[in-house]
Every structure is written in structure tokens, then in C-alpha cells.
Amino acid sequence: MTNILFIPGLACGEGQWRSHAEYFSANNETAIFELPRHPGLSVRGHLDALHAKLDVLRWDRVLIIGHSLGGNLAAAYAHAHPERTEAVVLVDPTGDLRGAVLGEIEDYRKFVRDWFEEILGPAAAETRDRVLSDLDDVGRESFLSTFEAYRDYDFSKVLKDRLDLTLCIDGEGVKGPDSFQRLHPELKRISLPNVGHWLHLDAPEAFRDALKDFSSL
């Protein structure tokens, strides 16, 4: 039996992982940890909240599956607490954000909706509706504060000593120079076709197959 913790990305609700948590709960212990939405909270604060979550669950070891910024948090937690982390699965992770520039944002709602529409890519209508609905539930201050916190954190080396215990599942296509895929070319990577950023919603069976091959769940 494996303890599996799912971490949604920024502005993503736990419902985006519920079906996978239920699926794998047949033979494992599963739980979902949402990124805290407290403005001004640092990545260190998120790491502490994640550590506290595992203490509440009484899990000594855990397989962490994180999507987008949730993948960044998973990687940082494994780096900070290798004794608690069995393995990490990065689901289309963001990578190092220190070079990211948002610029002036006059209309926040239009800005984030256009951004998410772009990275949804060829997503199914159901995926698109769920993602945009979750996005509408997150206020400007929480969204931008969390993004800034992750932009101020050095993620470039958090995988350096964990590559043998890390899998990246993403969509096809070229990734940016500061993505984990480019920073660590040796990172084990499985790319799924015809999916957007929320590939675990667009291709749930293919995602589960990739996960099983990696972790023998």
C-alpha cells in the first residue's frame, strides 16, 4: 500500500483530482492538498502547511503527485524532506519562474481567463468548464500573491538529487528554457498526445497508465 498525495495547481480546486484519488484509494491511502490561498504566504509557508498535512494524516512516507505549481511544491518538498518522500510525479510542472514577467494587469479577470484559455489548449469542454469555474473562485490578491511567491523561489536545483525518483508527465511540444524538462534533460518524461495543461482531466486513463508504469500502483 502506498500513501498518495495529490496537489492541484494555482487556482485549481481539489475536485480536479477527486476521481483519481478515488480510483487509487482501492489499494492505497489517498488525500488531496490544495495550495493555501492566504495572500502573502511564501513557498516556505506552503511547505510547512504540506508538512503539517502529512503529520495530520500520520504518513511517514508519501508519493506526491503535483500539477503545475503543485508540481513545483512537490519537488521542493521532496528536496527539503527526502526522508518523507517516496517519489514525485510532476504533472506538466511550471519549472523555475524567476525570469517570468507578468507586466501591468489592468483587467485581472480578462488577463487570467485569457492565460488559462491558452494553456487549456485542445481541452475537452468538460475540462474547460471545470478549470474556468475554479479560476473564478480565486481572487486577484490570492492568485497574484501566490504566483509572486513562487516566482521569488529558486526551483532550479530542487530536483538535482531526486531525478531517479521523479517522473514528469506532460503534453507534447517544446518546453521553455526554465522548465524542469529543459533544466534536467535526463528527467524521466512521458508525454501524452492531444492534451492541454490539465492532461489528467483530458486523458485520465492514459495518465493512470503512465503513473502505474512508474510506481507499480
Question: Would you mind describing this structure in some detail?
Answer:
With about 220 residues, the chain is of the alpha/beta class. Helices cover about 45% and strands about 15% of the residues. Strands 2-1-3-4-5-6 form a 6-stranded parallel sheet, with helices on both faces. Helix 1 links the parallel strand 1 and strand 2 (about 30). Helix 4 (about 110-120) runs antiparallel to helix 5. It starts with a strand and ends with a helix. About 35% of the residues are buried. The mean pLDDT is about 95.
What structural class do helix, strand and pairing data support?
alpha/beta
Largest beta-sheet characterization? 6 strands, parallel
Q: How many DSSP E strands?
A: 6
Q: What is the count of helical runs?
A: 9
Could you name the key traits of this structure?
217 residues, 6 strands
Topology (SSEs and partners):
Elements: E1 3-7, H1 15-24, E2 29-32, H2 43-57, E3 62-67, H3 69-80, E4 85-91, H4 108-120, H5 125-136, H6 140-151, E5 166-171, H7 180-183, E6 188-192, H8 199-202, H9 204-215
Parallel strand pairs: 1-2, 1-3, 3-4, 4-5, 5-6
